[in-house]
Design goal:
This is Iron-sulfur cluster co-chaperone protein HscB. Residues 116-188 form the J domain. The protein has eight helices and two strands; from the N terminus they run αββααααααα. It has helices at residues 2-33, 117-120, 131-145, 155-176, 178-188, 203-218, 222-248, 252-278, and strands at 49-59, 62-72. The protein is elongated, with a radius of gyration of 24 Å.
Length: 280
């Protein structure tokens, strides 16, 4: 009986361990894709600081990391825990990052250099962002940082509030939609989708886009335009799922190709809105 109970406990522990590994694999891969999202320069004394990126590529049982660096610029230099940031007004240490306000004198602070939009908006670095959490964070920050709150403050505080408020707006709008979010994630990895890359697209895909655009041009009723808009939304949702899947695998080139397709469909979606406004 004792041997049976020991065996049962061993199997249960093994099953629990496997479950935990599967549950955390998603976040582990995203965390491994880049160290630049939350890791900042270790030196604050150089005129030009460098941000390190780490790509994670998984192929079956084999995986590897590739690192590179490139210069970044911003308003405030980020330092390590041994040399923390201090308030520009009272020179007291700032106890958290990002620090929008000094906890001692309550004045607004300038933005930190190299701070990713994900960290500014307190979002997990993932393609499937929690939109409700993102919106709550945006409203919270804008209520406290909006320039209207600093009309009676010093010129320096007014300037910092304008900069911080604009930065929060940009971070929010970038992370809000899948396309801009995905493009930003590629940018963090040093990858961009250049304009005028039609020659790189599949001919069958380009033919499909041409047919959709022609059908939209020929649409004579709101119902016809709405049908095209519904189909386009479905395709965008499908691409969102595919991009999330390949990013989990660290397949950045595939993600780049899918995001390029998403740009085309997003453009059609905007054309549908323009077409519908013409019927009003």
């Amino acid at each position: 009986m004792l041997a049976f109970n020991s065996l049962r406990f061993s199997c249960s522990a093994r099953a629990l361990l496997k479950q935990n590994v599967l549950r955390t694999r998603r976040q582990i891969v995203y965390d491994a894709m880049t160290c630049s999202v939350h890791c900042m320069p270790t030196s604050c004394n150089r005129k030009d600081t460098w941000r390190s990126h780490t790509n994670f590529v998984a192929r079956g049982k084999d995986s590897h990391f590739s690192c590179y660096t490139h210069p970044v610029s911003s308003l405030r230099s980020f330092c390590t825990d041994q040399d923390k940031l201090s308030c520009w007004h009272c020179e007291q240490p700032l106890d958290k990052s990002p620090a929008f306000f000094c906890m001692s004198c309550k004045v607004v602070q300038p933005p930190e250099e190299g701070m990713s939009y994900f960290k500014i908006m307190d979002c997990t670095y993932t393609f499937t962002v929690d939109i409700q959490k993102l919106q709550r964070r945006y409203l919270q920050l804008q209520r406290s940082l909006h320039p209207d709150n600093f009309g009676q403050k010093s010129v320096k505080e007014q300037e910092y509030s304008e900069i911080q408020s604009a930065l929060v707006n940009k971070a929010y709008n970038t992370l809000l939609k899948p396309l801009s979010r995905g493009l930003y994630m590629l940018e963090l990895q040093g990858m961009r989708i250049e304009e005028g890359t039609d020659s790189e697209a599949d001919s069958e895909f380009l033919m499909e886009l041409m047919e959709i655009n022609e059908a939209l041009d020929e649409a004579r009723t709101p119902e016809e335009a709405n049908k095209i808009g519904k189909d386009t939304k479905g395709k965008l949702a499908e691409l969102t799922g595919e991009i999330d899947a390949v990013l989990l695998k660290g397949e950045l080139q595939t993600a780049k190709a899918l995001l390029a397709q998403m740009k085309y469909y997003a453009n059609i979606e905007e054309k549908v809105k323009e077409k519908l406004s013409g019927f009003m």
